[in-house]
Amino acid sequence: MAGMSAPPANPLAKNPMSGSTPPPATPRYHPWDDAVLIATLFAVDPSGVGGVCLRARPGPVRDQWLADTRELLPKDMHRRKIPLHVTDGRLLGGLDLMATLRAGRPVAEHGLLVEAHGGVIELAMAERVRGSPISYLCAALDTGEVVLERDGIALRSPARLGVIALDEGSNEDEQVADALVDRLAFLVDLSPIGVRDMSDLPYEIVDIVAARERLPEVTISEAQIGAICQTALALGIPSLRTSLHAVRVARIAAALDGDPVVTDGQVNLAARLVMAPRATQLPSMEPPPDQEPPPPEPPPPDQDGESDANQEQRNDPLADQILDAIKATIPQDLLDRLRLGQLRRAKVRSTGKSGQVQQANMRGRPAGVRRGDLRPGDRLNLIETLRAAAPWQRVRRAERERGLTPGAVPVPAKRGERKKAVPVVMPRVAVRKDDFRIQKYKHRSETTAIFVVDASGSSALHRLGEAKGAVELLLADCYVRRDRVALVAFRGKMAELLLPPTRSLVRTKRCLADLPGGGGTPLASGIEVGLALADAVKRRGGTPLLVLLTDGRANVTRNGEGGRPKATEEALTVARLVRAAGVAAMVVDTSNHPHPQAKALAEAMDATYMPLPHVDAGRLNAAVKAKAGL
Amino acid sequence: MPVPFPFSAIVGQEEMKLALLIGAIDSRIGGVLVFGNRGTGKSTAIRALAALLPKMKVVADCRYGCDPDAAEDVLCAECRAHRGDTPFKTKQVPVPVVDLPLGATEDRVIGALDLEMALTRGEKSFEPGLLASAHRGFLYIDEVNLLEDHLVDALLDVAASGENLVEREGLSVRHPARFVLIGSGNPEEGELRPQLLDRFGLSVEVRTPQDLATRVQVVQLRDEYERDPNAFAEKWKRKDTKVRKRITDAQALLPEIEVSEKTLEQAARLCMTLGTDGLRGELALIRAGRALAALEGDKSVEITHLRRLAPPALRHRLRRDPLDESGSTARVDRVVQELFPA
């Protein structure tokens, strides 16, 4: 390969990427070497690859990686860090209050995103960041600029930057927001790397600088782009950004090697680094049983009939080679999970989690201002305060000059001084108490209707249909009011949370569509799961409403054992817990003939009892709304 | 600002491109909503459209960009006062495409007291906001489903009335604000409120292309663009010019497009069968039909046009049918097939 003979001192020689020949059957890539390679590729073109999502606990390994990355970035490059609780104003920019007060005219200040232009921004505790900071980062990554429309300022500033998202999450539930992950080329997991695994940096800044210069000239062939796209499809990666990133990374790798044309080895490397961590399926696998195959299937053999540029569409040797290499790098546990088809479920759960976090951010959103005294705990809205004060400035100045009033904050003149005509230091902007505008926050406690649905037995299908209908109807109303719906189903031996609190119809539909029915009635478990969820809702400041749809005939205990008496006893016990927790509840009796057991259950829960032998979604919805006071 | 990706270089996504063109041809359609997953080129298409729109004529020194030929009630107070004295001085300006970024504050959106004037000169004057800048153009809201509620409320009101009424900080200002709303977003990240949904004339759903050839083409063009945006834009300039000409031709043709009783009746039947609320659906369908006919050089709106436009004009106005698991697009298609088999 050209790169090996190219003039620049090439430390890549020992690296897998310099081989244009396919890697051996099962090569072992060292995770630290890969991580360092990623740091290097990122350093060449930070904004081009979007950035790195770095999953690692704080510690020596992460510190070393960050130090290495810093060493590879040009010294004059801007570097900023976004703390967890950054305000919108600091991130985007806005009115510089101190300067404005001093100058007596609006002075704008840049936010972190603009300050980092041309460089790198680190996002601290990225797995906990949700909501607006993520949106702003994504917008900056997409457009390369920050458009500011705040505080009476309209400003467009360039903000081309690369992001290092420091992901300190420790499990599947804590993940960086999908929208951001999609825009970052690299996902790196440093957790399996120990201190002893680390080695010295094989690159120097001169390599980076040279690569930067060469990068615009590097070309990649259509067949290579085709192989990358095909690999993405085969691995079930729907987003086109990932393919684009792989193309970009392949070109950067070539630039590092000093090659004017991308080699297959570099394509291989790029696909491995960029795509492998995002695989949601393996091409050779049968779709797992009892689950529909994930939407992005590998293209069928005779797709479109016309494959001009892709004559080797199916058995593209390069694509096969890439896939082999990728398979070798996917960790065994991931491979197993892919095989079991579990990955997608984990994914769905984690989105649910993100919804909850977002919810916490939304609590107490700003909702206008009021005038009045500033009491402890209030937050002054400075911009509005200035606006209120602004029209009076001339009058006040005149008053001050005539020495008529002592008023203005923050320079109180004493009464006696007036006659002595001591010159008073006059602030450029005179703000008085009347001008104070206090930020109002809207904090409405949201209602979350938790449906606990009996999916057992023969009539389950019908009941389920109705329950699904009611959930969707309610949701349609809910999202007007920004309320939420959750769904727990119990059948067989256990209860399961099928739909975490959500407002999204799309997710609800998807979730409801594959809700199966049949089996025993583990009533106690169902109520228990519902109660746990109600508890969680309460802790986040929401108001839960438990809606239990059942005939009340429990026959499976919490341990998953049969036995009607014991199961009934347990159900009643758990029901009393609901009453004790003070959670509003209603029991909808779905048996054909209203049954005393369901009624007893309702009494134990202190719930509204509603016999509804032929539940229809409309009536159920009306009842739930009445109960929740919606 | 970097050169935007050329509109004509966007591969596939035909429905989205058509809806955007229709929105550009007739601003009364009420805007376009583009919903789809990440990385499907939503924002790219909208920014591309902005770059190729033909210029428009405005009153030379009007801060709201009033149309010199407009009726009196669409002019701002100042233009209205001067109307009739002498013909307006006019100039040509690009059609505004205004970004409403997430995190925009209310004062910048609807307009507010001009701080600088007030602080330095003690004068009370109005500083127009984004709604004023978007007058006669486009207001683009990326991630429209994540927009703050109080901003959405302000927007809805202005979009419905066509004018912005500001009553704050002792100011009382009224100015025209007629714009085409363009929203984009990812439905998995949050639903849009039905009130806002209904304002959009057309809605399109985009998804990532699943066939290899298209994907390769997209990645290739995008890569080429990112390596040298200027050269790339130059290369596609002629094709973009053609698209622009199609828009201006269609705009000229629009008043002459006929809509027969029969077509009106067909549109009404379609909406009734689908059970869409109110008349907005029918209006959007007919208006979009006229724009499509004009775009394709036809003289009248026919069922072929309606058939193509029924999904984008109606799919977001359906009542949710909880027991129907198929998406709303499928439902529209089904009814179209039943009523007007091809």
Structure summarized in a few sentences:
The complex is a heterodimer of chains A (about 625) and B (about 350). Chain A is an alpha/beta fold and about 625 residues long.
Count of DSSP strands of chain B: 11
The class by helix and strand makeup of chain B works out as alpha/beta
Oligomer: heterodimer
Low-confidence stretches of chain A at least 5 residues in length (pLDDT < 50)? 1-26, 285-314, 340-363, 405-424
Spell out the helices and strands of chain B N to C.
HEHEHEEHEHEHEHEEEHEHHHHHHH
Distance between the termini of chain A: 70 Å
Query: How many strand elements of chain A?
Result: 17
* Largest interface, C-beta closer than 8 angstroms, per-chain residues: A-B, 93 and 68 residues
How much of the sequence lies in strands of chain B comes to 5-15%
Mean pLDDT of chain B: 83
The main pleated sheet of chain B reads as: 5 strands, parallel
Number of helices of chain B: 15
- Spatially, the strands of the biggest sheet of chain A line up as 14-13-12-15-16-17
Q: How would you describe the shape of chain B?
A: globular
Characteristic key phrases:
heterodimer; A: 630 residues; 6-stranded mixed beta sheet; 25 helices; flat; B: alpha/beta; 5-stranded parallel beta sheet; two-stranded antiparallel ribbon; globular
Structural description of this entry:
The complex is a heterodimer of chains A (630) and B (342). Chain A has 630 residues and is α/β, with parallel strands linked by helices. Helices cover 43% and strands 15% of the residues of chain A. Chain A has a 6-stranded mixed sheet with strand order 14-13-12-15-16-17, with helices on both faces. In chain A, β6 (145-150) and β7 (153-158) form a beta hairpin. The longest helix of chain A has 22 residues, at 460-481. Chain A is flat and about 80 Å long. Helix content of chain B is 46%, strand content 15%. The longest helix of chain B has 17 residues, at 237-253. In chain B, strands 4-7-10-1-11 form a 5-stranded parallel sheet. In chain B, strands 2-3 form a two-stranded antiparallel sheet. Chain B has a two-stranded antiparallel sheet with strand order 5-6. Chain B has helices at 14-25, 42-52, 77-82, 106-110, 115-121, 130-133, 149-161, 194-199, 212-227, 229-235, 237-253, 261-274, 280-295, 303-314, 328-339, and strands spanning 32-36, 55-59, 90-94, 97-99, 112-113, 126-127, 138-142, 163-168, 171-176, 180-185, 202-206. In chain B, a hairpin with a 2-residue loop joins β8 and β9 (171-176). Chains A and B meet through α8, β6, β7, α11 and α12 of A and α4, β5, α5 and α9 of B.
